[in-house]
Amino acid sequence: MKRKPVKKARRAAPPLRAKVKQPRVAGRTAAAGQPVARALASVGLDVREKLRIYRYMVLLRSMDERMLSLQRQGRIGFYGSTYGQEAATLASAAALERQDWIVPGLREAFTMVLRGYPLGPWLAQLFGNRADPSKGRQMPSHQASRSVNQVSWSSVIGTQLPHAVGVAYAAKLRQEPVVVAAYLGDGATSSSAFAEALGLAKRLAAPVVFCCQNNHWSISLPLSRQTAETRLTKKAEAFGLPARRVDGNSIDEVYLATRAAVEAARAGGGPSFIELVTYRLGAHSTSDDPTRYRDQKEVDAWLAKDPLARAKRELIAARAWTDAKDKALMKESEAAVRAAVAAVESEGPPDPSTLFEDLYAEPPALLAEQQAMLAAELAAEPRVRP
């Protein structure tokens, strides 16, 4: 009996060769093979873009302060602050193009607002009420929206990273000029998902940039105890990824490093890793008390490196900003947050009928029957709801 010939395996899809506008250097366009980092470094960050990023950093700081207060008053259930990490978070997101995707960790939810998402619906998610686009189904601080290409973060450490690789590989297969920014903290580099994601990204040459916010603490565990290799770039290099370590409290360094990595990935250069060295000045979340495990002297040393204070000094030195303008911006940001809270907090709870939505394109008969039963019960005996 003759054996059937074995079919040859299909060759892997060729790397994405998107047509992207290369940065101009000294009156000419940088060649595709020239290191993008060198090209962008010679251009520098436009002061107008730096000022835009700074404005959102101030708004985020105002938001964090207000939300921590609301959580302590019992008006929201949970909140994860970005205090001290504003530059690492927002400057990296600002380096993306509109079509790019963000797969975030805990600290990156506010990048949605930077990318154009309205402040009201973003806040409503924290209350989980009728104004919440996710209909109260998510834990607070888990915002997401297709309108700005951002998915919800995962409360489980590191599990978002393989998903980010999948999103990037899908874009590559479709030959779309899309890059994915996959965010993680230093603790996630010790997770199995980290190893899986970086190994897969390298094998598939996926257009993904891993943005690691090294804030020195994995909740209550310091960096020196959670990993033997404290230079996290070394972990990425072990998987063959180009890796870069930058000052995460510098808008300029974060933006230029991320922009270089993003454009290299868009041009078919595959995945890369950026370690953003920063510090978590506040608690891990509202469920945490860092005074139980952290020396205040360490916090004070990093307070002197506050990214907002640094950016303000640099903008004033560049004659693009003044103390008077800064005070006005602070008041404006605080007022914007207060107005947004007032607009959405009074909304009632989600309609119970929404429990049955977004499950099936065509609801099965059993689900439709259950929905009708609930509607009849609520109509016959209305409940007093908070």
Task: Summarize the helices and strands and which ones pair or pack.
Layout: E1 24-25, E2 28-29, H1 36-43, H2 47-72, H3 86-94, E3 101-103, H4 111-114, H5 119-127, H6 160-173, E4 180-185, H7 192-204, E5 208-214, E6 217-218, E7 221-222, H8 223-226, H9 233-237, E8 243-247, H10 251-269, E9 272-277, H11 296-303, H12 307-317, H13 323-345, H14 365-380
Helix pairs in contact: 1-10, 2-3, 2-12, 2-13, 3-10, 5-13, 6-7
Structural account:
With 386 residues, this protein is an alpha/beta fold. The chain has 2 domains: 31-345, Rossmann fold (3-Layer(aba) Sandwich), CATH 3.40.50.970; 351-386, no CATH class. The protein has helices at residues 36-43, 47-72, 86-94, 111-114, 119-127, 160-173, 192-204, 223-226, 233-237, 251-269, 296-303, 307-317, 323-345, 365-380, and strands spanning 24-25, 28-29, 101-103, 180-185, 208-214, 217-218, 221-222, 243-247, 272-277.
What distinguishing features does this structure have?
single chain, 386 residues, alpha/beta, Rossmann fold, two-stranded antiparallel sheet, 9 strands, 44% helix, globular, disordered N terminus
SS-derived structural category: alpha/beta
CATH class of the largest domain: Alpha Beta
The figure for the number of domains is: 2
**Rg from alpha-carbon coordinates:** 23 Å
Instruction: Estimate what percentage of residues fall within beta strands.
Output: 5-15%
CATH homologous superfamily heading of the largest domain:
Thiamin diphosphate (ThDP)-binding fold, Pyr/PP domains
Separation, N- and C-terminal Cα atoms: 76 Å
Strand order in space, largest sheet: 3-4-5-9-8
Per the principal axes of the C-alpha atoms, what is the gross shape?
Answer: globular
Please give the number of β-strands.
9
How many strands, what sense, and barrel or not for the largest sheet?
A: 5 strands, parallel
Would you tell me the overall average pLDDT? 89
Order of helices and strands: EEHHHEHHHEHEEEHHEHEHHHH
CATH topology of the largest domain: Rossmann fold
